[in-house]
UniProtKB/TrEMBL annotation:
GO terms for molecular function: signaling receptor binding. Gene3D superfamilies: Immunoglobulins (2.60.40.10). Keywords: Disulfide bond, Glycoprotein, Immunoglobulin domain, Membrane, Signal, Transmembrane, Transmembrane helix. This is Myelin-oligodendrocyte glycoprotein-like isoform X2. GO terms for biological process: regulation of cytokine production; regulation of leukocyte cell-cell adhesion; regulation of T cell activation; T cell receptor signaling pathway. The keyword Transferase does not apply. InterPro entries: Ig-like_dom, Ig-like_dom_sf, Ig-like_fold, Ig_sub, Ig_V-set, IgSF_BTN/MOG. It comes from Betta splendens (Siamese fighting fish).
Length: 241
């Protein structure tokens, strides 16, 4: 995000003041099947482009090999104040909307209704007749079946490569479960290592104490010799008398 903003700022500084650059922000959006999403794309600085053609396409989609003209089909084309449907991909029929009321402000964002797993792809926003060095931008849409359906998603609700949805607070279950298991395993391992270290230190201390103290039997034997020694030495004198 920060790199994208810095790049756009440099482009605005280095291009003539009359020119504007096309920007997509954010460039990565995650959604669940059935969501309505908005692919954000705008001009910086804002320029009224109501009279210009706006094309939304999937740049990684290959032309139909059975089409002799190798024509490119689009997700959405806006021209002369309305949508052009004769070049539209059938799978997007009735499911796309350009926010036309925002064109005067340079906003060419596209809304896709009821997204499916097949909609996951790169999308390109292109303004062919824009007098600028940067006339296009791309947005990556990720459709995850493990996410729960929510209301319309906009880029403001999604940060690039985020695990959570800031507005809904949802987490992908295939991420949450492994993270929880790994965290508990690491915690258990730390407890075991700490316990083993404490036991090793106490055992080592006890062994050192035993080496420096005489045994109980040796103490008893020394005490017995101390008591019997004088008596035994005095017995010969008693016999002489």
């Amino acid at each position: 995000m920060r790199l994208c903003s810095i790049t756009a700022l440099l482009l605005c500084v280095l291009t003539p003041r009359a020119q504007a650059v096309v920007m997509a922000s954010p460039r990565l959006i995650s959604s669940a099947p059935g969501d309505d999403v908005v692919l954000r794309c705008h001009l910086e600085p804002p320029v009224d482009i109501q009279a210009l053609t706006v094309e939304w396409s999937k740049p990684d989609l290959q032309p139909d090999p059975w089409d002799p003209l190798r024509r490119v089909q689009y997700v959405h084309v806006h021209r002369n104040g309305g949508e052009v449907t004769d070049m539209k991909l059938r799978s997007y029929a009735g499911r796309t909307e350009l926010l036309t009321e925002q064109l005067r402000h340079g906003d060419v964002s596209l809304k896709i209704l009821n997204v499916t797993l097949a909609d996951a792809a790169r999308y390109r926003c292109f303004i062919p007749k824009l007098k600028s060095a940067v006339r296009e931008a791309t947005v990556q849409l990720v459709v995850d079946a493990n996410l729960l359906k929510t209301s319309t998603l906009t880029p403001r609700e999604h940060e690039e490569q985020n695990m959570t949805d800031d507005s809904g607070g949802r987490l992908s279950t295939n991420v949450l479960i492994p993270v929880t298991v790994i965290s508990l395993s690491v915690l258990l391992l730390i407890i075991l290592i700490a316990g083993a270290d404490i036991y090793r230190r106490q055992h080592k201390k006890q062994s050192s104490t035993d080496l420096h103290q005489p045994g109980r039997e040796d103490q008893q034997r020394s005490g017995l010799l101390g008591r019997t020694g004088p008596a035994e030495q005095s017995s010969p004198e008693r016999d002489l008398t």
